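Hey, quick one: can you model this chain's 3D structure?
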Amino acid sequence: MTSLSIKALTILVLSLTAFHDCYAQSDSLQSSSIHHQLEFNAAPAYLFQTSEFFKGANQKQEPIDNTISYHLKYGFRFADDSYFGRLYPHTYQGIGLSLSDFHNKDEIGTPVSIYLFQGSPICFLSRNLSVDYEWNFGASFGWKQYDADTNPYNNVVGSRINAYINLGFYLNWQIARNVKFKLGGDATHFSNGNTKYPNGGVNSVSLRGGLAYCFDSSCRPASLSRSAAISPFKPFLSYELMIYGAVRFKGINEQQYLVPGRFAIVGFNFAPMYSVNRYFKTGLSLDGVYDDCANLENHVAGRNDEDNLLFYRQPFIERISLGLSARAEFVMPIFSINLGLGNDILYRGDSTRGFYQTLALKTSISRNLFVNIGYQLSKFHIPKNLMIGVGYRFHNKRQ
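Sure thing. Here's the predicted structure for all 399 residues.
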């Protein structure tokens, strides 16, 4: 099993633990129960033609431009009279299982994804109809990876296990007391985070529809006087320190040459975050990175007998950088989505300089301790590295 799969499964296990811990720490133990639901949906999709392989340079000599996935999902809402139930009465979260069919089993496979998800209404169009968002994040297994001898056309997928990321917007219609019908669109990205090459990424947009059945209660929360149950919120400043690590491959000369071996990434983020309300934080983050393969292209020593490039060891100063980023964080039960836009301010060399972006999912293990799994890009399209880490919140207040 690759390091990516171990990390992804670790996040799933820790997140399931967090479900119990966060629930138990609230006043939910005095309430009736959480509210369970089971959902099935299907999603026919258009596959973006990002490589010659998808355009028809494959065994069948036919374009691969569509796919379909099937999803089975268990979700739950917090009890209506619990702390999280009062704050987020319509929010649901859980774990899902999906099967994706690319109509090319021999070269791509039929990957199965295991993922966490969370959704909530953006607005209500009527008493029983809302516009919802939902994100999915997990790992996908069973890909047919590139192999020069057995799978030479597939220059997109370099690993059997890839990350699965999905974001969608749906009409959520309660058609009966215990039944909801959902219809909308979403975008999906599969990638291995540069832990193996090739890593072209598989991207699609889909139309998704399905039914959800709510057990032991109506799909709609009970009517509660939230203003009476929840005290007014007072904005406050907290501080977050997160340490992360990852491994990556290194390509040079526009990825035409793959440097042998894997390279370590170690970094930290220190971010004062201002909580505007219970659902949104913003702040600045000081971002430090050690990249074992940074600026390697500037230290070519020659070639060996096998015609592979040889490199001098870069000076330590060329392997570290310090950046400053603006952060926005959307806070929900258990999970937070953190977005960042930053620029390097202290660096030596071209590959440690520039404009970068981060996207991270934070999973609360306790009120202050969280697990981070994220991804960093350069200039919005150049993959850099995964960010698998642990963080702690200081001066964090619960209101």
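One thing worth noting: Residues 3-227 form a domain with the Porin fold (CATH 2.40.160.20).
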